[in-house]
TrEMBL record:
Name of protein: NUDIX hydrolase
Organism for this UniProt entry: Streptomyces justiciae
Enzyme class, spelled out: hydrolase
UniProt-listed PANTHER family: BIS(5'-NUCLEOSYL)-TETRAPHOSPHATASE [ASYMMETRICAL], DIADENOSINE 5,5-P1,P4-TETRAPHOSPHATE PYROPHOSPHOHYDROLASE MUTT
CDD domains hit by this protein: NUDIX_Ap6A_hydrolase
Keyword Hydrolase: yes
Domain Nudix hydrolase: 13-141
InterPro entries reported for this sequence: NUDIX_hydrolase-like_dom_sf, NUDIX_hydrolase_CS, NUDIX_hydrolase_dom, Nudix_hydrolase_domain
Amino acid sequence: MSSPDTTDPTGTTTVHAAGCVLWRRSPIDGELEICLVHRPKYDDWSHPKGKLKRGEDALAGALREVEEETGYEATPGARLSTVRYLANARPKQVRYWAAEATAGAFTPNTEVDRILWLSPTAARNRLTQPRDRSLIDDLLAALHLA
């Protein structure tokens, strides 16, 4: 298990986070749906994710964040890409997994005020950050739908 943050040789601290591309089969037509979360603090749409707690396993952290942000429990699947970017002038690394929603229900909270279940195409178009769009392609490949 790693600590949530690491320092590189230049003294820059990397923030470690984890998340999931949460999916389900539509209760209406059985088609694939991807869950996106809306964070009012940033007014953005993204995949559920968050910083790891000290000593927390990345997959455990990803599933914890999914449940905290969406209200859904999930069964983890394939490991997806790791996304790296700068957040508040600090490097951030987010490890992602595919995860199938199993049980639960969304309740709005201060961190996430809305969720949407969208088709892969609609989800790709709704995501605020272009870097998050390739994760949908990763999911489709992992589910052998690409």
